[in-house]
Write a structure and sequence with these properties.
By secondary structure, this protein is an alpha+beta fold. The chain has helices spanning about 5-65, 130-200, 205-235, 250-260, 260-265, 285-300, 330, 350-360; strands spanning about 80, 90, 105-120, 120-130, 245, 270-275, 280-285, 305-310, 315-320, 365-370, 375-380.
Length: about 375
Amino acid sequence: MLQSEKRSLLRFLVIYLLSTFLLFSLASWIFYLFAKQNIIQQQEEMMKVESNHLLSEIRLLHQSNAPILYYPENKTMQSALYDIDKHYIFGTLPPTHLLYEKEEGDTLHYVVKMEPYYLGGAYLLVQKPIDKRAIDALEEQILFFMLGAGVLFLILGYFLGRLFVAPMRDAIEQMNQFIQDTTHELNTPISTILTNIEMLDTFGGEEQKSCELKRIEIASKTLSRIYDDLTYLNLNHHYHREVVRVDFSGLLQERMVYFSAMIEAKGLQVQRAIAPHIRHDMDRNDALRLVDNLLSNAIKYNKQKGLLRMTLTQEVLVIEDRGIGMKKEIIGQILQRFKRANSSEGGFGIGLHIVSQVCKNYGLTLAIDSEENRGTKVRVLWKK
């Protein structure tokens, strides 16, 4: 993984985990408060039940004629009686404890109004400490749950982060591949030109000069085509198109002359079935890109001394070769930018992408049939 990818992944994880932790912590805190309050309310209800039992014992004590009264005790809570003026009478709570004065801390406080009065008391105050065992268990469960969720979100965030940086990684790989392909594609014709110029200076024969000049011509046209394709790719949506009536019959013959040196260098057998005076409305530069890229691919990916067949009618343009062809799974992806069926033949993987863009701009139908090691047939159908 590149340093830029690692930085992007780390930033994503920090933002993702921090935001997730904050939201999850807020949700856990709200749940904790709600659950804690529910536990306290349950203990309060239990204390009210115990208060009623204590009140029953006080009533029985009041009704008894025993010479000595023993105030009933409860192991789980403390209590005290207060008179009608809210003055302390007696109980297990200290005398300094005032009615309705809640203890600071973790205690439950409950006052029962007694009617009629028993043992001179009008109010029964009950107080008990909160049982923290349930709350401690709740806190422990939430803590373990947050730790488990944190590990889960960390793993999930890592895989989401990998998905997040995947487009950047693909873009970087495409850019690196593009730079390598550009270097290779430009270096080959430039080296050919320089080498053959040196040979022209060294050897003076007319036949030798003709051969070297033809190689220079091929290299120069290759450079020109690369430049035109890259320019078209960059300016496709920005330059002004002037739609005119283009004579595709004449254009196809003209481009065959243009590519004749490359066809001869590969020893291709050319078959033509070009109907005369086939015209369609299109910008001439777009028409050139359409024809040039189809012919260039048919020549480049053809076999040595292979077949190049061209067919042109009013309805369809067909360019067919007997070259290396493509696998079936590649055909559906070959129109994507920088996608190549075979990396050994060079190129940028933009030729058919440009063809597809031209077809899309003019509402043409592009169909590709190919079989590995058998060849490729490309059809451009004009709309009726």
